[in-house]
Amino acid sequence: MLCAVIGLAFAFFLILAIMRHSPGNERMREISAAVQEGAKAYLNRQVKTISVIAVVIFILLFIFKDHPTAIGFVIGAFCSLAAGFIGMRVAVLANVRTAQAASIARLNALRMGFNGGAVTGLLVVGLALIGSDAAIHSLVGLALGGSLISVFARLGGGIYTKAADVGADLVGKIESGLEEDDPRNPAVIADNVGDNVGDCAGMAADVFETYAVSLIGAILVGVLTLAGNPSAIVYPFVLGGISVLGAICGVLFVNVARGKPGRVLMGAVLTNALISAILFWPVTHRLFPAGLTIAGTLRSPAQLYFASLVGLIMTPVIVALTNYYTSSHYGPVQKIAHASETGHATNIIAGLAAGEHATALPVLCIGAAILVTFHLAGLYGIAIAVMSMLSMAGIIISLDSFGPITDNAGGVAVMSNLPKEVRAVTDELDAVGNTMKAVTKGYAIASAGLAALVLFGSYVQELSQRVTARGEVFSYQFSLTEPKVIIGLFIGGLLPFIFTAFSMDAVGKAAGAVVREVRRQLQAKPGILTGQDRPEYGTCVDIVTKAALREMIVPALLPLVAVIAVAVVKPLGAVVLGGLLVGTIVTGLFIAIAMTSGGAAWDNAKKFIEEGNLGGKGSFAHAAAVTGDTVGDPYKDTAGPAINPMIKVVNILAILIIPIFF
Fold first, then answer.
1. What is the spatial distance between Cα 518 and Cα 166, in angstroms, rounded to a whole number?
2. Backbone phi, then psi, for 178, in 5-degree steps?
3. Mean of the pLDDT values across residues 212-218?
4. How far is the C-alpha of 391 from the C-alpha of 245, rounded, in Å?
5. Sign of CA dihedral 379, 590, 334, 170
6. Sign of the CA dihedral 286, 290, 292, 298?
7. Structural element, H or E, at residue 596
8. What is the rounded distance in angstroms from the CA atom of residue 646 to the CA atom of residue 555?
9. Are 378 and 185 contacting, i.e. CB atoms less than 8 angstroms apart?
10. Higher pLDDT, 428 or 240
11. Which one of 327, 403, 526, 657 is most buried, by most CB atoms within 10 A?
12. Percentages of the chain per state (helix, strand, coil), in multiples of 5
């Protein structure tokens, strides 16, 4: 808890440090204020919409479950919303200052953008540790609150940002030949607002939920399988606390290091991992001096330490693999760019293939991590590895938030008519930030696969305890020879497909509305393109706000309805529900990695061409690449990332309803 408080204190120190820097000229401040106003208005309306649903769930938990679970649900929901809201506000403060810093030096802009993101990172881990401690008697309720809010935030923010982005690109770039963030584009403010509500607020809620659920999963395994050893329950908290200190060291590294932006940011990740690896050793030996007996076998402190080390190693491994598939410096992205030379269709084909290729190595690494950690310390070893991996969320979220901050900084630079040299700096940092966003999503999804496996183990353990407590024999068979398990696998495997279909439909509908509005304005006021008339930015902001809030409801409630429906139907019951959990994990993991990596690869293929390769901006290849980027937008920023909290909602809800239905 002390480490969590230190992390929060350092976050507020960074806010003060950011505020001391110049926000630029009057035009820059005006644009920043417009973006901030739009983002704040959207989040306020989103909170009101979510609150209605949250109140209903709170009442149901209060009546049908118990009071602590209902209170835990409120704590989880509040912390998830708070992390996203504060992170978004700081990002808006940082983006205009990053644009101003870019007019001085690239290094200044890098540090300003990263420090703005670090505020969100440290807030997320600090709030997750403190919130989990406050709700220690209602952890499953807290996990459900965090996960459910995360689904809404990811979906709503993702629909908003991608509807605005797609609409702005289709009419602005392709039909009217406007540059990125051109102030003559009526959807440009909505696009910049979207970066904040989707990539900052939505992402913060997402990783808060992932972090909290991983921590809670590890605690549940400790409680259910090692109840006689309190150190096993404390250990996950300690790992999280130590890595907060490592994240602070990573932030300090960025503020003193020099070099290429990508290398400096990767250096911060390695700094965090190294410090955590060093400090985990003495702490593990202090908590478990005589080892730990797991399933009748004594595990040494070294074995527990190596399980935590696997989690730390997995972070840079997943980061490196995602970077390979999504960075313009490597083959997969360049292959998509070259495919653009022969047309729009070949670009799409190459992008789809790249996303599917990107699933192989991460999933094999996840499988290897499960095998090694289970051998070292059973299910508890897997839980420790997951918590260790997520303990680095502070520095990873800092990388993610860096992306939308630098993206918005570029928008501010263009709309403020700053020199082209400034936009060149922000474009370079934006390309790095694009890869960082993909890296974070890959990291969150990979850890979600491991965390969900731990939650499935907790589901079986909780179900067993529930049945035996009634004096009955636990006879449920979670075997592939049991037809009900196969049925559950099919239903669970179906969920991510239906979920992403609803999400993609939502972006398509909202983007279509933006396209029609932008065309209407350009036809009604031809002077917009010549600079004689001012676009009606607020109309586009209003369209995507209403569409995002309306379209997020059905897909967000889908996992809740599916789990309860399976539990209620007596011929299905607990065994089918167990199969459903595994099916959701397996297909969800593959779809999420393919979508997020493929979408980021499409985006960076476009940026690779815009750097002057293969004909540069305005070429035939560039037009095809813009189409690919437009298709990839909802892949990487709406449907793909939202699968992560959806998987957790399914697993957490299954554990929660055991006493009610079984």
1. 11
2. -85, 155
3. 85
4. 10
5. negative
6. positive
7. helix 573-610
8. 9
9. no
10. 240
11. 403
12. 85, 0, 15
* Residue 260 φ/ψ, nearest 5 degrees: -65, 140
Residues 6+ apart with CB under 8 A from 587: 492, 493, 494, 495, 496, 497
Q: What is the structure's pLDDT at 289?
A: 93
Longest dimension (CA), the chain: 80
Contact at 8 Å (CB) between 121 and 401? Answer: yes
Q: What is the Cα–Cα distance from 64 to 414, expressed in whole angstroms?
A: 55
578, 488 contact by CB (below 8 A): yes
State pLDDT tens for residues 155-209.
888 898 888 888 888 887 778 888 777 888 888 888 888 878 877 888 788 778 8
326 close to 438: Cβ distance less than 8 angstroms: yes
Instruction: Give the whole-angstrom CA distance, residue 445 versus residue 415.
Output: 35
CA count, 13 A, side-chain hemisphere, 527: 5
Could you give the 3-state DSSP secondary structure of residue 515? helix
Based on C-alpha coordinates, what's the Rg of the chain? 24
Distance from C-alpha of 146 to C-alpha of 139, rounded to nearest angstrom: 11
Closest CA to 626 of 344, 431, 251, 305: 344
The pLDDT, as a whole number, for residue 446 is 81
What's 293's DSSP letter? Answer: E
Q: Residue 329 is encoded by which pair of tokens?
A: 């410096």
β partners of residue 15: none
Which amino acid, residue 372? V
Per-residue pLDDT tens over the stretch 611-654: 899 999 889 999 999 999 989 989 988 999 889 888 888 988 99
CA 122-126-129 angle, to 5 degrees, is 145
472 — phi, psi (to 5°)?
-100, 165
- Per residue in 492-507, pLDDT (tens digit) is 999 999 999 999 999 9
Decide: 435 and 262 in contact? Cβ < 8 Å.
yes
Are 333 and 350 contacting, i.e. CB atoms less than 8 angstroms apart? no
Tokens for 587, please give them.
Answer: 């297909």
Q: Using CA atoms, how far apart are residues 201 and 51, in angstroms rounded to an integer? A: 16
Measuring CA to CA, how many Å separate 257 from each of 94, 114, 272? 20, 13, 14
Dihedral sign from CA coordinates of 375, 381, 386, 390: negative
131 and 142 Cβ atoms separated by less than 8 Å? yes
Evaluate the CA torsion angle 100, 106, 108, 112 in order and state its sign: positive
Query: Which residues neighbour 546 within 8 Å (Cβ) at sequence distance 6 or greater?
Result: none
Phi-psi region of 378 (alpha: psi -120 to 50; beta: other; left: phi over 0): left
